[in-house]
Design goal:
heterodimer; A: alpha+beta; D-Maltodextrin-Binding Protein, domain 2; Dipeptide-binding Protein, domain 1; Dipeptide-binding Protein, domain 3; 13-stranded mixed β-sheet; 4-stranded antiparallel β-sheet; 17 helices; B: mainly alpha; MetI-like fold; elongated
């Protein structure tokens, strides 16, 4: 017992000493052609560019590997390994490769390398997420030394965007290489602006500039990427000069970093939207009950109820108070700048009294009881956002419980935790990112009626279904004419909002922090690329 | 079997009344022990009377307003007009009220789980000590099995399977704590059951349950009290850890651990009050209980001259 107490008191004492251990290295100013050190919130899970497609991995792989087409900071297609491309007919695209692009080992980039990359990306052994979703409907043909032809099963207007997801590797090396060979660096040979130097999982990725790069040479001759998952430590590392750039500045630090003359912030509205989803599918929803806990018909089948919920939640207050600048209030599926965004949809002001009246009109004068489920470690301040929403719904008479859980548990239950493998929750917080830079991804995966055989509605965990919108989405996806397609998507967005399929909450804003002698304009795909940062002056 | 023999130790309880007074007197001979006890009583009173001491029910969503969120200690509520003595968290929850309500959860969970675990553990331990043989092996192997797992891991697994909620937290704590009591009870029980008075009871033909309850148990109680006190403190910190990790109590009804976890995100932006005050409350509570436990150990230990 004696020892127990000593250990206990000792432990308490240790806690009181330094809560934050700040590395004591001097602050080095960055210089042109010098080293850029980046502190990243999420670690890349592999150096194999086809193994796991998530933001952190794509950020790293884009330094080393080119794409056939790149997406710029606003998600616009710009030439990559292809200098030009065009659609020949509704099912065929042709890409012309640039001359002079070479891999880091000196081999020229050929059409065979591209075709090989697309085949491998769909079939990497053990891959967490393979790229079949973007590549499955395409056949690739070599029609000349520098020309690649892509034939799709159905008319597909976004072939260049879909191909931009896939890193191009060397066929000669890639044929025998396994993901481990990329991690060791042996096979990690691309045609991008940086070459692989070193990779120690959990600690560091080191890159050096590819002086033979076909495009504009970046400002930094060396790039060091360090994973620093804890927000506070990341900020501390930046302020102490340990790193030059960090991604994902925590909301609570935005204000005091703004006042720091040695630190600049860069922002980009992410192509993602965080929203509350209803159970539209079931006639009785397990977590929506009368206030005494007895079963009631699913209230979310009523558009009025959904509208009341949307009107009750003050999105502006959530964006301002909880996210403190790391989110913009949302009114539809995607933020402005994404193809298909409808500028005519207004952001409504919250109105508790009116929402209460609507609830009464819908037949719930005394409200009902519902549990709001969501992840607690996936989005910025997710559980705080849920509590704030709960506060606002309580004011219109809803008896609301909040259940926040770790994301890996949440998503499993949200997708298939219910009876018979259906989505479990009645009312839940999720997010969706339009990875291709078009609203079509959100429409197709989120809003379209769920259909396991076609893959439509794969993220439609609320089982929303509206045949009219379905038809329009399918029409849009087969329309090659950009103007016409945009019109169709805008109509889809307006109909989705009109029907209150979801309650849009906010568009996350990615905030980067950097030393004030570095210039950066922000990106909308959340990627952190050394090529985007410039030495000022 | 003799029918009903006079139990020669039946009047033991009366004889312990005097030593009890001596014990209390010797407890207060230590200033630190006294300080711990006073502190603990104050904390318990604050927790019990939380609804009367706080301005706000921090668990009632209707009384919260996010426009009052992130206020510094001492700032006044725009909506209600009273000052937030210890500031507010990001939801506009008065930290002072939240800490008092959080203490209720922490103490409630700690005391309930420790006493339940003590009942189960002591019973099993004494039965093992008294009965011996195969039953003892089974119980003690179960204890070894339980103690060989890290507590926090077991608790995490239980909560992951059963889901959140205060009831489940208590259940998880009981399941990880009973083994400590069982082991201690068996140790003491073994020593006591070899003593002459137990042998004598046997010879007199006193029924087993009566020997267990009236003779063995009372003599094993002092060490169990000490363990129980320390286990209450341990349960409180374990509950705080579980809530800090987000598997304990629901987020709309934060306990101290969850308050610390919520406030932790704001630490680096200078909003220290969201996690420091609940942290201090937790620390003071655990220290007070440990001081009391420590003093009890000294007082109740017959070998140590106090």
């Amino acid at each position: 017992m004696e020892l127990d107490r000593r250990i206990f008191l000792g432990g308490m004492g240790t806690l009181l000493i330094p809560t934050a251990f700040l590395p004591a290295s001097p602050a080095f100013a960055v210089e042109l052609d010098g080293t850029l050190t980046i502190g990243m919130s999420t670690e890349s899970s592999s150096m194999d560019p086809h193994w796991h497609i998530q933001t952190a991995n794509s950020s790293v792989s884009q330094h080393i590997f080119d794409r056939i087409v790149h997406l710029d900071k606003n998600q616009i297609e710009v030439p990559g390994l292809a200098e030009s491309w065009q659609s020949i007919d509704s099912n065929t695209w042709e890409f012309t490769l640039r001359d002079g692009a070479t891999f880091h080992n000196g081999d020229p980039v050929t059409v065979e390398d591209l075709i090989f990359s697309y085949e491998r990306a769909s079939n990497v052994p053990g891959a967490i997420f393979n790229l079949r979703a973007y590549l499955g409907d395409k056949r690739f043909e070599k029609v000349g030394d520098r020309t690649l032809r892509v034939i799709t099963e159905h008319a597909n207007p976004i072939v260049p965007r879909e191909l931009a997801t896939t890193a191009i590797i060397s066929k000669r090396i890639g044929e025998t290489a396994l993901p481990e060979d990329y991690n060791s660096g042996e096979a990690c040979i691309g045609s991008g602006p940086y070459k692989f130097v070193d990779y120690v999982p959990g600690q560091v990725i080191e890159l050096e500039r590819n002086e033979e790069y076909w495009g504009e040479l970046p400002d930094w001759s060396r790039v060091v990427i360090r994973p620093i998952p804890t927000g506070g430590s990341r900020v501390a590392a930046l302020q102490s000069g340990d790193v030059n750039v960090i991604d994902t500045v925590p909301p609570s630090d935005v204000e005091h970093l703004e006042n720091d003359s040695e630190i600049d912030l860069g922002r980009g509205t992410a192509n993602r939207m965080i929203f509350l989803f209803f159970d539209h599918g079931r006639d009785v929803s397990p977590y929506a009950t009368a206030k005494d806990g007895s079963e009631i018909p699913n209230p979310f089948k009523s558009r009025l109820v959904r509208d009341a919920f949307d009107l009750a939640i003050d999105k502006k207050a959530i964006a301002a108070r909880i996210l403190s600048g790391n989110g913009a209030p949302a009114e539809q599926l995607v933020p402005a700048g994404i193809f298909g965004h409808n500028p005519d949809i207004p952001l409504r002001n919250a109105d508790t009294a009116k929402a209460k009246a609507m609830l009464e009109e819908a037949g719930y004068p005394d409200g009902f009881k519902v549990t709001l489920h969501g992840p607690n470690d996936r989005f910025i301040r997710d559980s705080s956002v849920m509590q704030a929403a709960a506060q606002m719904l309580a004011r219109i008479g809803i008896d609301i419980e909040v259940d926040a859980m770790p994301a890996n548990i949440f998503y499993k239950r949200a997708s298939s935790g219910g009876e018979g493998g259906v989505p479990e929750f009645s009312f839940f917080l999720v997010g969706y990112g339009a990875a291709t830079g078009e609203v079509s991804a959100a429409l197709r995966n989120l809003i379209h009626t769920y259909d396991a055989s076609t893959g439509f509605g794969s993220n439609n965990r609320g089982r929303y279904s509206n045949p009219e919108i379905d038809l329009l989405i399918e029409e849009g996806m087969a329309t090659l004419d950009d103007v016409r397609r945009e019109e169709i998507y805008k109509t889809c967005c307006a109909m989705t909002v009109e029907d209150v399929a979801v309650v849009p909450l906010y568009y996350p804003i990615s905030v980067w922090g950097m030393q004030s002698d570095i210039a950066f304009e922000g990106r909308s795909d959340e990627r952190t690329l050394a090529m985007d940062f410039n030495a000022a002056g | 079997m003799p029918v009903d023999l006079v139990d020669p130790f039946a009047n033991e309880a009366e004889e312990t009344a005097r030593p009890m007074r001596d014990l209390i007197r010797s407890y207060f001979r230590s200033p630190i022990g006294t300080f711990g006890l006073v502190l603990m009583v104050l904390i318990v009173l604050a927790a019990v009377f939380a609804p009367f001491l706080s301005f706000q029910n921090p668990y009632d969503l209707l009384q919260l307003d996010i426009l009052d969120g992130q206020l510094k200690p001492g700032e006044t509520s725009a909506a209600y007009g009273y000052p937030y003595m210890l500031g507010t968290d990001d939801q506009g929850r008065d930290m002072f009220s939240a800490i008092l309500y959080g203490l209720r959860i922490s103490l409630g969970v700690g005391i309930l789980s420790a006493t339940t675990a003590a009942l189960i553990g002591a019973t099993l331990g004494l039965v093992a000590a008294y009965h011996g043989g195969r039953l003892e092996s089974i119980i003690m192997r179960l204890v070894d099995f339980q103690l060989s797992f890290p507590t926090i891991l077991v608790a995490l697994m239980i909560l992951a399977v059963m889901g959140k909620g205060i009831g489940n937290v208590i259940l998880a704590l009981v399941l990880v704590e009973w083994a400590t009591f069982a082991r201690t009870a068996r140790g003491v029980g073994l020593v006591e059951s070899r003593k002459d008075y137990i042998e004598a009871s046997h010879v007199l033909g006193v029924p087993s349950w009566r020997i267990l309850l009236r003779h063995l148990l009372p003599n094993c109680i002092p060490p169990l009290i000490v363990i129980a006190t320390v286990q209450v403190a341990r349960a409180i910190s374990l509950e705080a850890t579980l809530s800090f990790l987000g598997v304990g109590v629901p987020i709309t009804e934060p306990s101290l651990g969850l308050l610390i976890s919520n406030g932790y995100q704001y630490m680096f932006s200078g909003m220290y009050w969201m996690s420091v005050f609940p942290g201090l409350a937790l620390l003071v509570t655990i220290v007070a209980i440990n001081l009391v436990g420590d003093r009890l150990r000294d007082v109740l230990n017959p070998r140590k001259d106090t």
